[in-house]
């Protein structure tokens, strides 16, 4: 199951192209954004982002 926070983190990461920029947009810590994405990945057993050159 996912929450609005998980969805917001995912959408911001897609739009901004990085966890850091998504965190700035949502006024959260980068680690929080990554943890929310990781929770989604674990819940649905999927990989949402592949990290390339430190960017999702």
From TrEMBL:
One Gene Ontology MF term: DNA-binding transcription factor activity
InterPro entries noted in UniProt: LysR_HTH_N, WH-like_DNA-bd_sf, WH_DNA-bd_sf
PROSITE patterns, alphabetized: HTH_LYSR
Pfam families in the record: HTH_1
UniProt domain HTH lysR-type: residue ranges: 2-56
Top-rank lineage group of the source organism: Bacteria
Protein name: Transcriptional regulators LysR family
